[in-house]
Amino acid sequence: MAHFPQTPSFTGFNTPSRIEADIADLQHTGEIPRELDGAFYRVQPDPQFPPRLGDDIAFNGDGMITRFHFHDGQCDFRQRWARTDKWKLENAAGHALFGAYRNPLTDDAAVKGQIRGTANTNAFPFGGKLWALKEDSPALIMDPATMETDGYTKFDGKMTGQTFTAHPKIDPASGNMVAIGYAASGLCSDDVTYYEVSPEGELVREKWFKVPYYCMMHDFGITPDYLVLHIVPSIGSWERLEQGKPHFGFDTTLPVYLGIIPRRDDMKQEDIRWFKRDNCFASHVLNCWQEGTKIHFITPEAKNNMFPFFPDVHGAPFNPMEAASHLTDWTVDLASNGEEFDSITRLTETVSEFPRIDDRFAGRRNRYGWGLEMDMRRPHELKGGSAGGMLMNCLFLKDLETGAEQHWWAGPVSTLQEPCFIPRSKDAPEGDGWIVQVCNRLDEHRSDLLLFDALEIEKGPIATIQVPIRLRFGLHGNFAPSEELGLAREVEPV
Length: 494
Prior knowledge:
Layout: E1 21-23, E2 28-30, E3 38-45, E4 63-71, E5 74-81, H1 85-93, E6 122-126, E7 129-133, E8 139-142, E9 149-153, E10 169-170, E11 177-182, E12 191-197, E13 203-210, E14 221-222, E15 226-231, E16 234-235, H2 238-242, E17 249-250, E18 256-262, E19 273-277, E20 281-282, E21 287-291, E22 294-302, E23 325-333, E24 343-346, E25 352-356, E26 368-373, E27 394-399, E28 405-409, E29 414-416, E30 420-423, E31 433-441, E32 446-453, E33 463-467, E34 477-481
């Protein structure tokens, strides 16, 4: 029998859901625009079985993918497991076989050497496929229409690295997917791979390089000429794993680096520029662009570690005040001869994370950015249901051109999941479209899907779609038009 531990990661709103379901035409209030025709995919960590070691961090759950398909003014729901190798092996055994987060030393001997990925971090439609992603393993491919799992891809053997990012970017000019893989030669190694994948799904570039030290490299930025990678000291080592410590821990004594990596077939290690700054925490990236010889890299920066479950390596207690992150512009100048940053500029006093843009402007200077705001000044009754236990009670819009901001509060007992921008059409101006995001109703143990006019979020949702089940905290998600997903309906002749 499944007896999950009575701990914060597995109780209350965080109780495992483990529901696969199809629901046509979800009930909603407001109006879903009839021209909105496509699907929003998002993923939640959702453990299939109780943890092998008695307890676990929430980020180690199996990937459960949700699809919201918008068409004809309605929204249909489908939810399926990402059937990874781990999921299939444990499903056959009837219990957990894999142990602690990214620690193979804690696994059952029967699964030694198997891919440990959970595909629980991003759901990414690209090239007519659905990519279920976790950065410690290859990409898992699913059918975007049926949501059945095809399996891991190594691109017909062309991919020689062991890992593939959970945060790929699409170059608007080439249409290529740009990705990295860290710990590419093995767990805790300082080897990284840089990939480009064509819209047809062919691996057209793989380049290897080394970084200043091994750490979590969760996200990155691109420009037309460069891949831009920040090295922040959420570090790991085999020594930590052998001692039974969490895979990652934050080291406040190490510097932070920004690597400028040429996107060329002939790129070599010596072509990379490494810029260096003082210690801080940064994970996700809003966007990145070139301006003459300068590179702008926009990221939510915090003074100290934001992940209490990956504690300070020197034993310092978690400091929630220093974990507050603000959108910050890191600028480096390729014309300089040194390794110093050109400038570091905080762009707002609003505390936010999970930044998103109109993805058609990836790598180009953008005007608008959305994110999840953590506003402690508003009444709140936190009952779980958010990534890392953070409040995330407001949707936030920043106009980088004028400095103007908009804020929408979800209420005292609701938390929000990552927003996603949907353009009104392929050639619509930047920001002309909608924001879609999940809202957890913590007191009712269920979820809503909210739809906003993207540039008027302070007016509140134009449609609230009621999901009759509880969606656990999710990480990342993305939208694609129906015709790219095999979801376009055949029009019957008149």
